[in-house]
Amino acid sequence: MSWELTNITARLVLPPGLLIFIALIGLTLARSRMRFGAGLTVFSLVSLYALSMPIVGRSLLQSLEAPHSDPARDVSPGAIVILGGGTYPRAPEYEEDTVSGETLERLRYGVQLQRRTGKPILVTGGNPAGHETSEARSMTSALRDFGVNARWIEEASHNTFENARLSSEILGKAGVHSVYLVTHAWHMPRAQMAFERAGLHVVPAPTAYTTSSGVRVLDLMPSGRALERSYTFFHEVAGRIWYRLRFDFGRENTKRT
User: Fold this and answer.
1) CATH class for the region spanning 79-207
2) In which order are the strands placed within the sheet that holds 201-207?
3) Rounded average pLDDT over 1-8
């Protein structure tokens, strides 16, 4: 329930939900305060158009991504942790729940890293939406399609914060305190923060960078995919701020006790 409430809140207070709400307020106020109401409406529509432009959505996500560096070049952690990125529920062609496209991108890179390093894999992802299969279980099934098995499965988490805490507990029992962390490049800053605060040494192994082949006229035209990228940016920024406040507040409470 808290997972659903958190996501509902995020969709209401972040663009595009916030901008739609502002536009509705503007239209309502236009009857009594024409100039102010019209200004709010125009502002929200222009902002919505801007965030729907591929060049804007792409640039926003790229601002979260660190330059690529080969994670296997210099160090050798004890395990590879692959974060879940969503589920494809009740897939008719597979006759079961399976992984989403984003999760598959992470798994593919995790498999490549495993073949290069030989390190065991932990997959992490619970079932907050109440599907038939947890995200981690679907990930293990997809890994077998690559000819790879996961050594550890963490399937009780509902978010990145819990991914980190529960994965750290599992790996700590196995004597593993340093990991390659596989997730999307735009998600890596928040994920790395969470895993390091959970007590693990993290070697970032980001994948699925936001790339392009140059600017085209279409990059200035509205796109649903671009709006999704803009939403992802604001969601990540808000999540990073919330995690930092949560960690710092928790540290202060620990000091007082």
Assistant:
1) alpha beta
2) 152-154, 121-124, 79-83, 178-184, 201-207
3) 80
